[in-house]
Amino acid sequence: RLGAAFFEAHLVDYTPEANWGNWHAAAGLNGGRLNRFNILKQSKDYDPNGDYVKLWCRELNKIPPPLCFEPWKLNRDEQQRYNCIIGQHYPVPIKTNSFSSPAQKSSSSWGKLGSGSEA
């Protein structure tokens, strides 16, 4: 309950349904179902023009979809063209979804979360 209350007080886009439902699932109280969300897939499916991501990440405003969902993949020329230099205007990713082999993907916990087969 403390986590849910903290998010309720601090999230700009708070809704009781999403917040309490997610905390319920995170506590393992949803009957064994494991929800895994692939943020990139969700973005491309439900925000195909990048409107939502650009609302909250203004530095992505000039980058067209689908590039706006993965700005760290822009080459140096694109970064300059769109005025979004990675590491200056937008943070360098901590870890990405790329793997060099299927074996790495299946053995990695990140691969399980970012495999693209999630909701």
Straight-line N-to-C gap: 26 Å
Given the helix and strand composition, which structural class is it?
mainly alpha
Radius of gyration: 17 Å
Report the count of strand segments.
0
Largest sheet: none
Order of helices and strands: HHHHHHH
- What proportion of the residues form beta strands (DSSP E)? under 5%
Low-confidence runs of at least 5 consecutive residues: 106-119
Mean pLDDT: 80
The helix content is: 40-55%
The 3D shape can be described as elongated
Number of helical segments with 4 or more residues: 7
Question: How would you describe this structure to a colleague?
Answer:
The chain is mainly alpha-helical and 119 residues long. The protein has 7 helices and no strands. Helix 1 (2-10) runs antiparallel to helix 2. The longest helix has 11 residues, at 16-26. The protein is elongated, with a radius of gyration of 17 Å. It starts with a helix and ends in a 6-residue tail after the last helix. Mean pLDDT is 80; it is low at 106-119.
Write a short abstract of this structure.
The protein is an all-alpha fold.
Note the main attributes of this structure.
119 residues; mainly alpha; elongated
